[in-house]
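U., I forgot to send this yesterday:
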Amino acid sequence: MPTTPDETIAGPQDAVAVTADGVATSPVEFIELGLGLEMLLETHPVFTDAVKASLLPLDGEFLFELPLGEKPDGKGRIAAVRLAYEGSDDLRLAFAVLSDDGLETSIHRPDEQPEHLKSFAESFVDVLERLEKVATH
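Result:
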């Protein structure tokens, strides 16, 4: 689902960041979420259900899920979630991705996604936070 010739949604192969000395890094919470998601997809065949269940032990929040991929009948999905990672206690945006063949999953930072998707997710969070404020008053 390319957005411009130079901008595509990150897929499973793009999930790991690399330091200057070539060492792969990823927040431990991404690893936990990814492993949980892989295991839960075996018992929760619906991607959304597996993402929600894998967020439970991390006190994460499911935001939304969208189709991902080139094929109309593909299994690719992307879910926006919030969880605390990289030493922050605040819930931060991340994306869980299911490959178009439905076999691989990966977790990504927001800056690894197209600006329009990141912006939509941030706006979604802003609306949720405003609704929570209204509900508490």
